[in-house]
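Supplementary material to the annual report.
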Amino acid sequence: MSILGNRVLRKEDPKFLTTGGTYVDDLPLEGAAHVVYVRSPMAHARIRSIDTSEAVSAPGVVAVYTGDDVDLEPMPPGAPFANPAMVRPWLAKGVVRFVGDMVAAVVAETREQAVDASELVFVDYEPLAVVIDPEAAVDNETFVHEEAGTNVVFRIPEDFVSVGMAPPEAATEPPGLFEGCDVVVRQRIVNQRVAPCPLEVRAAASLWEGDHLTHWTTTQAPHAVRGSLAQTFGVGEEQVRAIAPDVGGGFGAKIGGYPEELLVPWIARRLDRPARWVETRSESMLSLGHGRAQIQHAELGGTRDGRLIAYKLGVIQDSGAYPGFGAFLPTMTQMMLTGVYDITKVFFTDISVATNTNPTVAYRGAGRPEATAAIERMVDIFAAEIGMDPAEVRRKNMVGNDRFPFTTPTGTTYDVGNYEATLDRVLEAAGYAELRAEQRRRRGAGGPKQLGIGLSSYVEITNGIPGSEFGSVEVLADGRARVRTGTSPHGQGHVTAWSQLVADQLGIAIEDVEVLHGDTDLVPRGVGTFGSKSLQSGGVAVFQAAEQVVDKARKLAADLLEANPNDIELDKTNRRFHVAGTPSASKTWVELAQASGDEGLSAEVDFAAPGPTFPFGSHLVVAEVDTETGGVVLERIVAVDDAGRLINPLIAEGQVHGGLAQGAAQALMEEMCYDDQGNPVTANLADYEFVSAAELPSFETYSMETPTPINPLGAKGIGESGTIGSTPAVQNAVCDALLALGVRHVDMPTSPIRVWRAIEAAKGKK
Amino acid sequence: MRVKLEVNGVTHEREVEPRTLLVYFLREELGLTGTNVGCDTTSCGACTVLMDGESVKSCTVLAAQADGRSITTIEGLAEGEELHPMQRAFREHHGLQCGYCTPGMVMAAVSLVTESPDLDETHVREGLEGNLCRCTGYHNIVAAVLDAARSSREGAW
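Predicted assembly:
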């Protein structure tokens, strides 16, 4: 019987539960100097002078470096299309562009000495006008990068048209976009900036041995780090060993290489001794990439009987001071523009701008949650406008099961879906009719505690970046298997899931599979863990490598047993190959591994999926809103998610849970705020509303499994779905509770003050 | 200054800077890196340990304050190979993912259940408000703690 689909407990856990994991800052590194960065307290300023003299002579200080000292080639542009004039310097030179921008690096014998000395670096700043509001940044005459002469990083569709990635006619809004619509609703929506907050902050440690660098770092993509380091230091990739030991969460923010991390090996080389760096949480809040940060202008049109016809979304994307991946999040918003609905006429625009804030990056969902949040909010507003139940509007417009593969008007091809079934299931599981009855009862009674019911149906794209992922399987002489995987996990349970895949193929115990990851000397190549890609890329590679190992073993067994390979069976129960019908003539894995000689029993696979996959689902949230205080209590979160075939439902559920919490947190609580001078006002975990257990209910989760034809496992990604579905469901629930009070929309986070103000404003209108 | 304290049953005596926080004493002096640091505002609870059986955030206790006290960290919770019922419950309920908050979360949960073995879900959620987790959404942590509390009431602790 296959162990795929079983709730196998994680192999990773005993270590984490007894000695704790081994994170970068836990590693001993004899003789390492400690690095602390001096960061700008100003959002935009000219550096008149930097006085490091006191710091240099402080106890234990080894060196102090400023931007002029760094003799590396400039950092590569953060993303394609990025204006070269907006490239980030290693350390600020002449100008600082956000609070947290790095001005100097202080290196000392101990961390405490480096911190103390960092306070002795005196910088004379001449304040400059700031650009904080992304809408105002578009036409502002103040530039984040003076040399660029603009704050605009990138425009859709113009920049796509100009490079031939979109046809000329795509440049302008199609004529008569909203023709045929009885009703068009419009709303400005803020998808606010949030902080990813992995529990482990960033850290790095570097050791040069001659021309060979070993670099430990908390990253989602160690092989990419190896590539960056080789490029930065002008050495071959074989001279760099990048190691991601245990990684305490990433959520997208640990994909890219940050100057803080890449400067550590520069310092180590310069000082000819090992160096290490770990940030504080308050530094992390300032300078680990932020997520989301879109302002959206949405228009949705349709008929009075609930048929959606046309949709227009204009995005302003805040990219922060040094535009990188964040500037391109809207490309994914565009891909997923129409969600689960069959809306034929659309127009999407984006202007990504630089501002004097921390750069934005991928954060759990990366551009797709923003698409879902917009369309799902607009569907509710449309439903309210025509007086139809929002579940009914959704049902009427969902892409039907007979339409797959389905290509959307923005050119995205969905593999397979069963959207209406997830809606039916969530309505039934939640008891939708009873909930609406209770809502009516409370509205009628007119008390302060009103009930909101929020729906969201989503589809999202996983493994969206083309390319292959590496996996290998080797059967060792003792009959155990060793796996090498290019997807380096940080909490996703790959060790367990990959062990299941191999154990299932080889017929050995899960405990007898060892999984190596996160070390570029142990794993020859790899891409990493992000975009919910691991199982359907790296997992499939391991699965196929295991299949190939079984084939090789079968042929070897046939040779040894003097039989035809086609007559050799693998008896997974007794863990041996035998001739069909003759169980006594058999060979075990140990015998075969030992007989395989120098060649060994192993296989390597670089699996390139023919395309991305599109998980989907429907979420329903019940919220109680106190209309006197604006306080919101999440009473229930019911989620139906379909990520294709599940290998380990326990782990998949865990991914959904985490996503639900993060999504609900954005909708309800979390926001990374800057004041109008660019001072961060939520820059530590006391001020930032990181969601805790106390604000959340237990979740009611259900899974459906519609296998994808895209890969042999039939699996899609599940890492980000929870976030994508839950955010608009929570927001819709809050808005739904206020609908009878005349409130049409409340932006996220739907904090008590915002809810209360919306209620008061609606009273004023009446 | 000199401090003498018991950590996981072993007495340690060390010369420390007066400003040394207990968490750095544990991590750097004693090499007990299971206890993590996740913030600098006493908000996240990753550094939670037991001091004389009660949970404290070791980032907000000076090593000097722990002089003469008994500390238990995640490394000292299991009895040899035998996991503590709370550790077992976290594993069985998949109450951890990246593992970073886990040592602190487990220690806080042990203290919470020891104090109030009869607790319900609301009590667990409020009791763990000072321990942040970014991966699990808390659902399985809460289930694990309730399960461990049940076993505690049944005398398994």
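Chain A has a mean pLDDT of 96.
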